[in-house]
Amino acid sequence: MTSTNPQPQEPQNKPRPNSWRKNGFEFLSIFIAVVSAFALNNWNENRRDAHSENKILMEIYNGLEKDWKTSN
Predict the structure, then answer these.
(1) Largest Cα–Cα distance of the chain, in whole Å?
(2) How many CA atoms lie within 13 A of 41 on its CB side?
(3) Fewer Cβ within 10 Å of end Cβ, the chain: N or C?
(4) Rounded to two decimals, what is the model's pTM?
(5) Which string of b and e fits 38-58 if b means at least 16 CB within 10 Å?
(6) Tell me, what's the pLDDT at 20?
(7) Which pLDDT score is estimated for 3?
(8) Sequence-distant (≥ 6) Cβ neighbours of residue 25 within 8 angstroms
């Protein structure tokens, strides 16, 4: 009886250079999309805050103008 020692085989799912390029591109695409979404959300919040600020300031101005006219 002869004992044959099987030779270790290399893993079948060894990363290929092409695969790294594809994965890198996919990661970069997702990263850019997420950063863009955060930037767009931040811009939209700032726009809404500015609109609310202008509305409040106009109400204060109108109230002061009305009080000024009634006091004179």
Answers:
(1) 119
(2) 6
(3) N
(4) 0.57
(5) eeeeeeeeeeeeeeeeeeeee
(6) 87
(7) 58
(8) none
Q: How far apart are CA 23 and CA 40, in angstroms?
A: 26
- Enter the tokens of residue 36: 């863009």
Amino acid identity of residue 6, one-letter, is: P
pLDDT at 68 (0 to 100)? 93
Take residue 41 and report the two structure tokens written for it.
Answer: 């959300």
Cα dist. 71→58, 60, 68 in Å? 20, 16, 5
Average pLDDT, the chain: 88
**Amino acid at the residue 23:** N
**How many whole angstroms separate alpha carbon 30 and alpha carbon 53?**
35
DSSP state of 5: -
Which residues of the chain have a pLDDT value below 70? 1-6, 8-12, 14-15, 17
